[in-house]
Every structure is written in C-alpha cells, then in structure tokens.
Prior knowledge:
Layout: E1 15-20, E2 24-32, E3 40-48, H1 51-63, E4 68-72, H2 78-87, E5 91-95, H3 110-122, H4 134-166, H5 171-174, H6 181-192, H7 197-201, H8 212-218, H9 225-255, H10 260-267, H11 274-284, H12 294-300, E6 309-310, E7 313-314, H13 325-338, H14 344-356, H15 358-378, H16 391-395, H17 398-411
Parallel strand pairs: 1-4, 4-5
Antiparallel strand pairs: 1-2, 2-3, 6-7
Amino acid sequence: MLEEAADREEIIQRVAALDIGKAELTCCVRVPAEGRPGRRLQEVQAYPAMTGSLLRLAGHLRCLGVTRVVMEATSDYWKPVFYVLEAHGFDTWLVNAKDVKHLPGRPKTGRLDAVWLCTVAERQMIRPGFVPPPEIRRLRDVTRYRIDLVAVRTAEKQRVEKLLEDACIKLGVVASDIFGVSGRAMLDALAAGERNPKALAQFARTRMRGKISVLEEAFTGHFTGHHAFLPAKMLARIDGLNADIAELDARIEEMTAPFASAVQRLDEIPGIGRIAAAVIIAEVGLDMARFPAASHLASWAKFAPGVKESAGKKKGKGSTGHGNRYLARVLGEAAAGAARTGSFPGERYRRIARRRGAKKAVVAVGRSLLVIAWHLLSDPQARYADLGSDFFSQRINPERRKRAHIHQLEALGYKVTLEPAA
C-alpha cells in the first residue's frame, strides 16, 4: 500500500554553498529565475580567504537575498568564514564532508564541488552539523587546550619513566605513582646529583616509609652522566605544564560562572567533576533542544551501536564508530572513575565488565552518564538521584536468585536443603 512519506519536498529558494580552502574559497549561489517558474539562476565565483573578501562576499550574498549558506567542515579553514557570515545574520550550515561526497565517476574541482553542494543543499538532502554559540565555542577552545596539555604532560611523564628503566632504576615497580609526593622528591634529588640508594630511599613519605628496603634495592642501578642530563629538563617541563593547566582551570571556572548551576548539577553525577562537567557543556552546549532525545545525543556522540543492515541481515560488529574525541575521552574517564564508587553507575560498570569486558563496560556506562547529563541540562529543576549499588539485586526475583544459588551449589557436588530462617 502507498503511504504518505514523513518528509516534505521543499526547495530553498535562495541558497549559497562554499567550497573552502586555506587561501581561497569558491562560492556557488542559486536563486529563482524571475518570470520563469521552475528555472534557476546560478553564479560561481572565487574569493580570497581574507577578512576583507569575506565581508564583500557577505554583502554580495545579502544583495542576492540569500538566506542559507552551506559549507563543508574543511579542517579549521571554515571557522573564519562561518563566523563572518553568522555575524551578518545568515542561516549558516556546517555539514560533514562525507555526507556530500561527490558521486563516483564525476570530475572533482573546487568549482564543481561548490555547485554540487549548492544543488544538494537547496533540496535539503543534507543536515547541518552542531556548531555551538560563541560563548560555548570560547569555552570549548579552553577545555580542549587543557585536554591537549594534559596529554603532553602524560607523555613527558612516560619519558621520565622510560629513562629510569634505561638506567635500571625500578621506582615504578615500588611506587604506584612516581610523581606523587614521595616519588617527586626522589626524582628531584636524583636530578640534583644524588646517587646513593639509601639516601634516595629516605625521601619516602607516609606509607612509602614502609618500603625503605625495597626502595633502596630499586635505586640500585646504572644511572650515569648520560642519564643525568635529561631528568631536570623533563621535570621542569612537567612543572611548567602543571602551572599552565592550573591557569586554565581558573579560566574555565571563570568562564562557567554564568551557568554555574548547570555545572553544579553535572558535578553531582558519580565520576564527573567540575572540569569534566565544563568539558561536557563545552562539547554539547546548554541547549538540549538541539538533541530531541537523550538517545539522539548518544547517537551523535557515537555512544550507540551503528546501524548497518542489508538483505535483512545485520552487518558489521555493532561498533559505535568515531565521534567527538574530546567528549569520548572525558566520558571514558568519568566511567572509569564511577567504577570505583559504590553508586549505581559503578555497579553497572562492574556487572557489565564481568560479562563483556572492561571496554564495553566503559562505553555502556559512558552512555548512561551522557543520558543523565542530557536530562539534567534539559530540565534546570532536575537533580541527580542515585539509585544505589543494590538496585539490580533488589529488582531480581528472589525465587530466581534462590534457584540460581541452588544450581551453583549442586554443580559443585552438594545436596541442598533449604529451611526458612527463624
């Protein structure tokens, strides 16, 4: 039977599309032909990517009555163009390049790409990407830079540990964190020229004092003059990164002051701190109307299995695909942090990890945290209420649990007789 389709045919009457490069962009404009119904007029023109040319482009599009401007997300070259046109009041769309990929067998040039993008855009066969408002974009710049600096600091710490291994210094075997209070004091002394294992072991603090003898053995190695040159440089670099990260933390706290209540609500979720809350807001924004449902947000963030079906059969391995790497990183860290708590997300992580492994547990709990965040950001009056670590056990039928325990004991060779407790 023929059924009415949900989509509606609608042509954007005055639309422009941009093929953007580093030094130049190509603009294609399509408008109706006056007095000739169903016919279109088209203009294709190249512009330098300088600000003055972008302003002239905005004025020209305004004269032609263009309402929507569509462009591909080409590296970071789209940003100045997007910001200038957005400031001039255009309905600017940023689209994923793979969504408008040229058809096979057709030649590819900047001019043809602009025409193709404009043709597809006027028929509304593409959807826009998510570009947050300016205040969220500025916060995103700071939070992403902080994440990058943390990655650089981690790499520098790994270099220090590799250097110690090369010198047969086994501090990492004894101390879980060689950059803790005790470990850092030992590293500073080592970089300052101290080579006596007993003297180095005496820098241990608190619980590390119980490992003095093991530390003396760990510091017995071959730390030569060749190794002595690098630790001071590495430690100084780590200290500089720590100072920069602390400044960024203060800046993030200042920038999130206007929506401190949203940060506070997200901070109540297990595994999510204030910095992680700021990162989530920077990546998804505050207006959840952009995501009609929590499942929509999870799908956009690639925390949901991809759908690939052919001839009635499911294809692929159900992987989630690659989404926003900054959001994925903070959700993964939050899931790992929640796993160490006695909360509902922590118990959910442990249950899934036992059956399906830690990696799938991280994705599942990360998705749960993102769904919770969507609800908290959608409703300013909502607050997080933990269901408790015993939520799953309370919902399981007692008779079912009893039979399961009996079967387990019988499998071990026991004969089970149950008597009610007094």
